[in-house]
Amino acid sequence: MRKYKSQTLISVLGLAVGFTCFVLAALWIRYEMNFDNFHKNAERMYMIYRPDTRNLSGYSKRTPLLLGEHLKGTFPEIANAATFTYVRTSFTLEDASIPARVIGGDSSLLKMFDLRVVEGSMEFLVRNSNQLAITQRKARKLFGDESPIGKTVISRNARLTIGAVVTEMPGRSNFNFDFIGRNWHSPQYTIIELHPGINLKAFQQKLYEHETGSELDNISNMTITPLTRIRFLDPDIERNVKFRHIVIFAISGLLVIVCSLFNYLTLFISRFRIRRKELALRKVCGASGSSLLAMLSVEFFAHIDACRCAGKCFNAMAAQSFPDAVRNSNGAACYLSGAARVYRGCHFNLNADILGGITRISVEDAECVYQPEQ
After folding, report:
1. Which of 49, 153, 268, 368 has its CA 20 to 30 A from that of 57?
2. Which sign, positive or negative, has the C-alpha torsion 102, 106, 109, 114?
């Protein structure tokens, strides 16, 4: 390796850069593909999309309030259905403004998302109730060990009482929430859960040909998207870095690794011709074939270890800016379809450690701070 410094340096850097690109891109892909996969029947849960000429994609996930109930009563293939609202807003608590992610629905939503009431009553699900439920995590953050039951928050000059504490989503979700109530003025979304063993293609065709009728806006040509995939397939989510670009980046890193390995193997084999006299002299001096093989193997794996160490260093350096890349992939602002609100300053927490050459990175969504659109 010392004798061929230039070739070794180029090969080591090439492999290290390839390792870094591939590892970070693979972790990013894994992060994007692990949303909402913790639900009990996640593989059978789907988001409903309806035609919408106002969207560039031609489809929107905004649906009428009663669509879930209508679909469950119409299609025997559907086990559960829930129509709900989801909005990011801000509440006032004791003269302090707090960011809040609010989900609105009924008991079918709790059943589908496997949410439980751990304290308080179910009155927050009653229509036109002025009560809200708060998640355990948000309650600990705002009130510590004190019970939040009976506390009041203000939203748009409306006083809302916290009447229950519920469990939160146990993992990353497109609908992580802090509060849950019965009614909320924002676009509605519909999620369905199919029975096991349903012919998905036949159901999709049946749903596409169905028309809801005038009471539900005569919706037809509806489609579905797996709940676990809307993170990177939803056309309403504005992204600066598209998911397919992340995949291309990962493939590019893999190709760099393959090309660098091929280049090094070519150089390694070509050196046999250059080192024929050296190897012959070693054999004359008593070296056996196995000892020569061991020497060459040590050189080869020492080179790989050097690449691995360099890759670990590059991963450690790249990990410093990785949260910004993830944040910017969804834009500097989080836009909600159909809502005249912009949430700026979305921050992410990143924990990175290097173990065995693999960078393990966990990214958690922090709450976005509400700011009125200028």
Report:
1. 368
2. positive
Final residue in a domain of this structure, among 233, 253, 287: 233
Q: Does residue 162 sit in the same domain as residue 210?
A: yes
User: In this structure, are 172 and 54 located in the same domain?
Assistant: yes
User: pLDDT tens digit string along 179-223?
Assistant: 998 766 667 899 999 999 999 999 999 999 999 988 888 888 999
9 has pLDDT over 70: yes
Write down which residue in 206, 233, 260 finishes a domain: 233
Tokens encoding 175: 């609908």
Listed residue (48, 227, 186) closest to 104, CA to CA: 186
Q: For residue 244, what are its two tokens?
A: 């397919």
pLDDT bin (cut points 50, 70, 90) of residue 328 is low
For residue 276, count CB atoms less than 10 angstroms from its CB and return exposed for 0-12, middle for 13-18, buried for 19 or more: exposed
Helices (H), ranges, the chain: 5-32, 67-74, 107-112, 136-143, 200-209, 230-233, 243-274, 276-284, 289-318, 322-329
